[in-house]
Amino acid sequence: MQLRLDCIRCERGRFSLRGSGTFEEGVHLVWGPVGSGKSSLAFLIAGTLVPSEGSISRQGIDSLLMSMQFPEYHLTANTVEQEIKLWGVDVDRVLTVASLLGRERDDPLSLSRGELKQLELACILQKKVDLLLLDEPFGSLDCINRHEFCSRLEGRAKGITIIFTHDHSAFPRIDYFWELREGFLTFLGTPPNALVQWSSPPPYIKYLIQRGVIPKNVRFDDVMEAQCKIRD
Amino acid sequence: MQDTRLKVISTVALSIGAYLSVVGALFAIAWWFANGRLAKFMTYPRLTGLYTVIIIIVAILIQFSGGSGIFYAIKLTAIVLIAIWAYDEYRSGEMLNFFVWGLGRDLGFDIGLIAEMSMQTLTTIREDIDHIRYAITLKGMRWGWRSIGLAMPILLHALLQRSEEQAKILAVRGYRHGGNLCPIFIFTSYDILATICAICIACSAAIPPGEFFILLH
Predict the structure, then answer these.
(1) Domain range spanning residue A36?
(2) Domain segments of chain B: what residues?
(3) Closest-CA residue of chain B to A83
(4) Contact B139 A68 (CB under 8 A)
(5) What's this model's pTM, rounded to 2 decimal places?
(6) How close does chain A come to B25, measured CA to CA in Å?
(7) B130-142 pLDDT per residue, tens
(8) What's chain B's Rg over C-alpha atoms?
(9) Does the predicted interface ipTM exceed a cut of 0.95?
């Protein structure tokens, strides 16, 4: 299973996005500041945008799902229950995971953006797909839900998962790191070495690196473990 | 064309010319061709197709009900082409510049701000529809009349939510009415020539050629 970007180029107004790379099975983090082209890259990989140059090829990938930044776009039903059924997943399970038990008959548009995001992510994570694209999955989620989502994401059996985010506050275990620098997709490598290559790591990781300790990964547990090494 | 004032004058003049007479409409189409917009228009194949189908259907209906469908088709084609040209030439911020120049920093600024927000909304609506359409296909549904019905409330909700957020931002920043802005316009001799031609087209449509020559006598 492999996703390959071959010298792609996409122009939107004055902004230009370029990059090459191969995405293997595992969890990839594409980090970039606001306006760096993360959503454009996600839509390019999803196939809704066409690169003006280069090509994108998928080998062994039969199914694809993308979670868009704004959960409202995903709505296609008048009740929460219908919405879950349209995803073709177990209603009770999604309601439990999304903390929406008892709200089956509610209009999805009456939910807050955070609740909508939880609903959408719960549905998406129930699906088994080869390529999962998550555009700003942590947006609108509170701290507890972010960590819960990270745990559930780590439970995904196989396939390629790509997280596009500018967020620094919570991460699952990441296998491959990428960064968007001035419209160019750069592969940073695998952890822990990739963390040193990261131009704008989270402040707590930056602090650890400055103290000479590189965490194994970016999960909360990994950072805490590295923190303990400093105390030693 | 960079100067918004010339752009607005040209758009209004050509629209009037195309509306008043078939000759004016033909001149407006010629003006559009002279501005090299054909290639740009062809980059909107869906829009081109949609307008063509609508114009043809209405023209046929008019023709069969005793009116002149061909004249209608020519006039409307000219108006649509000029409208697409005007939209395509729009650059962010120029509505605000234009209305402040025309109506001052109080009323002009308010109208300009509304116009600017409306133009930006047109862009976001297009993106919203693309996203909703993609979300529908993700669930294995086809994009059709039923899904358009599903998309409408979401689109409306997104627009209302965005409007509310914009209103709150303006209120938080202390906006009441009016604002300071010094509009700057850049134009070339070609822009002036194109605008003069557009005004001439409107005049030729408004004054029948016979009367024009009598006036000369």
Answers:
(1) 2-63+128-196
(2) 1-89+187-217, 92-183
(3) B139
(4) no
(5) 0.75
(6) 32
(7) 888 888 888 888 8
(8) 21
(9) no
Per-window interface: B 149-188 vs A, CB < 8 A: 150-151, 153-154, 157-158, 161
**A123 within domain boundaries:** no
Tell whether A180 is covered by a domain: yes
Tokens 């959408």, residue? Answer: A120
Task: Tell me how far apart the alpha carbons of residues B33 and B129 are, in angstroms, rounded to a whole number.
Answer: 31
Residue A16 β-bridge partners: A11
Domain assignment of residue A20, yes or no: yes
Q: DSSP for A57-74?
A: EEES---EEEE-SSGGGG
The Cα–Cα gap between A163 and A31 comes to 8
Along the 232 residues of chain A, how does pLDDT read in single tens digits? 899 999 999 987 778 899 999 999 999 999 999 888 999 999 999 988 899 999 999 999 999 999 998 888 888 888 899 899 988 899 999 999 999 999 999 988 889 989 999 999 999 999 889 999 999 998 888 888 898 899 988 888 789 999 999 988 889 999 999 999 888 999 999 999 999 999 989 999 999 999 889 999 999 889 888 888 886 5
Count structural domains, chain A.
1
In a domain? residue A56: yes
Contact check, Cβ <8 Å, A109/B128:
no
| Residue B116, CA distances (Å) to A20, B54, B181 in order | 38, 28, 14
Residue A55, beta-bridge partner list: A6
Beta carbon pairs, A and B, within 8 Å: 43
Q: Do A73 and B157 touch (CB under 8 A)?
A: no
Q: State the smallest CA–CA distance between residue A81 and chain B in angstroms.
A: 15
- Domain at A18, CATH number: 3.40.50.300
